[in-house]
Fold these 3 entries.
Entry 1:
Amino acid sequence: MIHYVCKYTPIELFKGFGEECAVLEEMPENFEMSDQIAHANLCGFGKSVIQAVLEGKADQLVLVNCCDSMRRVYDIVASTGKCKFLYMLDLPHEDNECEKVKFAGAIHRLKDAYEAYSGQQFDKELFLRSFAESEKEREPYIGVLGVRVSGVLEDMIQDNIQMKVDNLTCTGGRRLAVLPEEMETMDEDAMFLAYADALLAQMPCFRMNNSTRRNQLYLDPDLKGIIYHTIKFCDYYGFEYASIKKNIKVPLLKIETDFTSQSAGQLLTRIQAFSETIEGSEDMDPGTGISEEARKKMKSGVYYVAGIDSGSTSTDVVILDQNGKIKSTMIIPTGGGAMMSAEKSLAAAVEKAGIQEEDIVRIVTTGYGRAYIDSGDDSITEITCHAKGAHYLNPNVRTIIDIGGQDIKAISIDEHGAVTNFLMNDKCAAGTGRFLEMMARTLGLSLEEMSTKGLEWKENIVISSMCTVFAESEVVSLVAQNKNVADIIHGLNVSVASKVGALAARLGKKNPGEYMMTGGVAKNQGIINALEEKLEAKLYICDEAQLCGALGAALFAYEKCTAGE
């Protein structure tokens, strides 16, 4: 098996040797082996290639000199001696006639190199038979752009988006316009020139100087949304993303991974929320999902619905009555698993409402633990649910800032409460509720004490690190210097506000309207003051701020029932 990393690789050439080819898309759990011999700042994909070679998963490998990282990967892999056949293909940056001739020569040299390595002769007939005719049917689709995506990530996107997904990254969208019958009569030089022409005529990747045909993609009426993937420490694709964001008219989601399977798992909520933004949630379809038993209770005129928000810190429940009014709420700490916490919180909310659990005809779950709650009839991402709940509480809100236990979300919504854009910081605890919990513990305070004590500050102390571990060390050092605790807390509040404010600012100012803060951190007046100063805007805070996700889930359940009527 010959592995390759770029769609410009002449894989049909190897078919002429009777060899099979496959994209090297190994997404390891970690870079334990590659980190021992590669620089820490090498891009994640480069490390994944090295890791695959060291693990013996790729002993024949063709790379391309598309960037400095691939050149470094080639040198490192060559030094290991693990590859039986390792080749660096010289790829041009243009598709003009001169570069086509040069690329044809590079293909010819690759053929000679493989003949010398394998002892086999190139078979022209096998080569020509390898070109498969593929007609692309016109239908609505989501384009995955940017740097290469692994099979794991591509499958995750496809599984969570009902629309067709087209991989148009470094290795995807490989379509060659060739006529094998015409090439059959050519000599080898002419044939390889036509082959080079077909390879370079593909939808260009961003490293190509002429991106005209790539820009035409954005005008495709069948393109309904873009998921733009970047890899940590990769500099190439940030420029294109900035251009797309400025000019594109379809929904756009940017995701970043370090090319490990763990980083892919973190993206599930974003991908599902993006799907709901484009296609709507299945729960919004009034024609399905209402059982006959539920319909009978609804006909009686007295029934209830519930929303359960299973977060990392708390599990929240909201129960609505048949008129869509809040009947009962409950917030308990998450512990012992999402399912157990959901059952406990729901039971407490039912008891508080003075009803029976059997009176609840529909339950919608949301939050990180939603997939593990069996009692729910539907599951919707917390992004969509927070938008729904915020719009219910204040229809004038257009930007929602949710500081949860383990992430930060900034969400733009329209006048109907539908999500128009969102950003998340879910890769570390910086600026989250967990960050504040750890700082409070370090200072020997409760969260309630910390939320008010910082209001008494006098000296403007700067906390330079947002990393939870380093910030904790910084706080310990400030305490040792006998700095006032109120001043330290104020410094922490400002650092959190800077992180959150930067995320909100990236949504832009094109969605005028009120700001609303949700989540448990909305109770922290020091954070609110610091954030309002950063945003230069007033934050709408309500008593139900922490319940916003559960409220949105309950509202979806209620709307499903009333639409079903």
Entry 2:
Amino acid sequence: MQFLLRQKIFIHFLILLVLVGAFPPPCLAGEAKAKVRRVVMVIMDRIDMDDYNGPYLQNVKSLTSHGSVGLMNNNTGAGLYPMHTYPTLGGGAHLVGGPEAQKAFNENGFTLPRSEYISRTGIQPEAGNVFQLAIGELIRRNNELPYPAKPGALGEALHQAGLKTAVIGNSDTADLPRRLASTISMDGRGLTDMGDVEESVLTPAALVPGSLQTDYAALLNRFEQFREKGASLMVIETGDTTRIYEEKDKATDKVYQEQRAAALIRTDRFIGQLVDKMDFSREILLVVTPTPTEKALGQRKNLTFVFALGPGFPADTLLTSGTTKRDGIIMNTDLAPGILTALGLPKPVNMSGRSISASPFQPEEGSLSYLQKLNQDIVTVAQARLPFHTTYVTLLIGILGLGIYSLCFNHPIKGIKLLVLGIMSFPLAELLLPLLPGASVPVLALELILATAVITGMVVWIDRIKGNQALIFISLLTAFLILMDIMNGSFLMKRSLLGYDPIVGARFYGIGNEYAGVLMGALLLGTTAALEFWRPWRKYLLVASGLMYLFTVYAVGAPHLGTKVGGAITVIPTFLLTFLLLLGVHIRLRTVAVIGLAALLGVGAFIAFDLFRPPELRSHMGSVASLLLSSGFAEVLNIIQRKWDMNLKLLKYSAWSRALMASLAVFVIMYFRPWGIRSIGAKYPYLHKGFIGMIMAALISLAVNDAGVLAAATTLLFGAPALLYLALKES
């Protein structure tokens, strides 16, 4: 009877906490809801962030004084190449392209390309259309992706609403057509209503690599023509920067740099002229760089600038979106939904992106300067992440190995317990690192070493003063600061080495896999260690532990806070099981069923709450749920397949997989040793239950998260080292 009562109290309290969070502050502002007449997207490709530091893009940089600017993640369904980035802009999802998509042509009579298009599609293009020869290949390739991805989704949505599309320009060279811009404006048949993508918008340039240049007067002329014909979406490919870039290997470095500078100047001048011709009370201008250069990619400078002028985009503001919920950062998949929203149209279900808008936050130093500084910080952290974590995992494995060696052969190693505590202090040091001014990778490395040393020193000092306090202090402090950071909009996690990376783009807000694992492991260790060593207050600590578990469930799963579905699925059964063990409840099959039901109810409550919010405020939790409701069981299988593939990839290539294996190896070895888990379990029964909770959390994380290897590995950062620390103290 008491058991069932405890279950009811737990579930009711969980639902109460979810309802308390049902009124979060609005996440977005400045949504461009007012219908405009036209959106013009200017493509200025293969531009580096460094180009904005030079004197060549003055007109483009001045756009911020009239509108919004943001950093754009350019991920696709394959690599960061134009043949993938352009179709992704038109699909509103991460699409896959192909080299054949370079071939688009004007419909101007009985030509060989027209006959080829008809033979491939069975469709007769109308006079004035631009047709894309690769539409069949694009559809087949994207049908194979494990998520909805439709080439031409933007153009299709516009055509279904009776609106017209246009495409102008190319980046052809003398021997190769490059007309990918049509994959942005086309519909599902590969057709754009009107346009000019052939030689008529080029001029011969014998002294320029590629032997061609864009005729910007012709571009402006076509812009006026198609504007008069009522095009609601116009995609303009400026071409010169791409053309020069693609021919760079044929020229000397000196000539390439000179020609590139000239191309930037010509492109910038054209954008200034276009701005003068547009009516920003009824028209929106987007200036977009779909693809960074290979040099930028090599330096982890993957993000590119995107500018927006017109209704809904006030002067000197930052772009944001429901995908990122970050001031100044959007996804390339957000542009297509943003265009549809501006034109007063709904977003199709096959678009994973969310509409762009202007953030209410306005930095004092100006939007462009703010983003340049933000981008440098993001790049520095991205450059440091792999070498730092590879080094940490190597040290972790080495220290765990030394500890096991010391125990197995009864060979004391001086300072080994200090090193174990240092390993456990590392996640907290990484969380606090954004508070320090890390201007470069070497500076970050020095700051991280010092921060870890200071935290470890504090842990050791407290342990010596109070006795048996090391595990309590380091774990509860880590868990507390993570929870406070979640409540503060994850300010530290967004910038932490152990947080999420806007360049990778797997997550932009809430709590990521790494710190979700750290939070679970630290909280389980800290609460059970406190129950173990603070015996006079055990009754009160048990209640406090239950409340902490409930609050953590809320913080991790709430759509306006942690918004982590896999985390909620993990923490609810893990904390409930651990709490029941701490209460002395015997775990039976019925108990497991109740725990599973509580997990379903808790996660369902979070999802239901998110679905009732407006679409622009929903987290990816609600967006995925909405997709599942519309697509059915097939999409469930796709999600399972994606999670499985990601975990297999991480098991093969991630350093964290080695950390996970090393931690599990410690548990296995210590299970079969007389001084191991059974001995510690007999002496420290509450801690033993905490270790059971950690193993359960790691296994569930591995099963339900799309990068479960990371969450499982970081959960055990407070398991294997703590178990080893106790055994070393006992020995």
Entry 3:
Amino acid sequence: MKAGADFDPIELEIFWSRLLSVVDEAAVALLRTAFSTVVRESNDFTVVLMDADGDSIADTNIGTPSFVGILPRTLRQCLAQIPIEDWQEGDCIVTNDPWMTAGHLLDLAMLAPIFRHGRLIGFSGSMAHLPDIGGALFSADCREVIEEGIRIPPTKFLRRGEENHDLASLIRANVRVPEQVIGDFYAQVAAHAVCARKISDFFEVSGLKDLTAISAALQHRADRAMRAAIDDLPDGTYRSVLVADGYDGEETRIACAVKVYGSELHVDYAGSSKQIARGLNSVMNFTYALSVYPLKCALDPTTPRNEGSYRSIIVTAPEGSILNPIYPAACNARQLTGHLLAGAIYKCLAQVIPDKVIAESGTAPTLRSVFSGNDRFGNRFSQVLFGSGGMGASARSDGHSCTPFPTNTGCGSIEAFEVAAPLIVWRKELIADSGGAGQYRGGLGQEIEVEVVANGDIQLSLMADRQKNPPEGLMGGRRGAAVSIRRQDGSEPHPKSRSVLSPGQRLILRYAGAGGFGDPSKRAHDEMLRDLKDGYVTIAGLERDYGVRLEEIAGESAVRR
């Protein structure tokens, strides 16, 4: 067996690429076999390969960063309840406990042991957002997690390859769309089967006997890369405060301190809001993932991530706070809080490395709408509309329009959305002037208009923020446009609660624009004219946000030509 130091750098890079391809192929299997549009259209899942100690070796690049670094934590907690000697070849252990997984009951973690010649050599892990888990739908207005759906402790879904009929029956009896839910369970099973088969192929080609040496070498490289990036930062404590709408009159306050000392970094959320009796609470696992991911993007974006990527980073939040709630706190809409963390961290880092961060995005937090009821044939449906606001501008370029960050769950096919539910999407268009002004403009938000074409009423669950506190700009950049939600008649449903839509009613969702970057007076006039031509800004918007008149900048452009 090779020790970590014995790997030739080129050989190590080849092995690393092959291991990444293993998890990516497993991820494609999950994507292509999933029943729900949440997974197959919006990519709300991940697949991870772990060594025998439970440390991640490779994460797929296809899934969502909301799950970064979580599955090794989930595995360790599962091993505490199911001893390692009870894990057999062909087993698939599942749990959706929010405190063990990704923060709400809809995210199902599946773990499977990988054996070679009868010896345990590693684990595969997957996480996927289920289309339903019973309870009060995907919503923000529950007061405790018990209301939010079925909570599955670590349990074998497959025993030596055979379905646990008791668990499967319990799930089928308690969810709205059992075929989709169990179908997605088996899509995860398929991903684990592909991962095990591809790892076997990897051993045949590489000549390695297990994952121990290669895991140690890859984690060391990732750790060294992140420590070098942190070491380049000046030592010190950098603070920021971010305020979001919260629930009704109770705003969410994120107090963030990024503390740099040598090659280590500590993100401390002391002073943030206390946990609340609504589903906005972000459990520590989710808080951790949504903290280390934006740091990885800013500090070390090119090195493939594994367990070593995060060893130099500590994330803490006071117990009982909205970022580290105590059971049985409601947490179904934890993304409304967790997605704010990238903006808070980047406000801190902008004080020392403004060229490596972006302004706040219109999908931080993302606006989600969930539609549930019976279609025209009497079949039950539960469908999430995944849309995106703008992405924040940087020191180098305008923000991308309708691009998610820090999540990367896409909207997917509107045709697939309409097939899955009695809904018609009449409009999906960019909103002019919604990107925050700046030397570099924030990405534009969008407006989506949806009509109910069911025979009867359907239930709507909204999870939205940024109506009162739009995404902020950086380094003098202006705010993006706010979120707004209304029915066609002008009435406004509660942005974080459940309501009813009747046949023929239309819902108009305006996703937020992103913050701009830099002083708007420094924006190039040619860029303003291009935005005007493309319909990204209006003449009135140029005058209001940039203090310029069309005749002035058009005249300058004509003179240069």
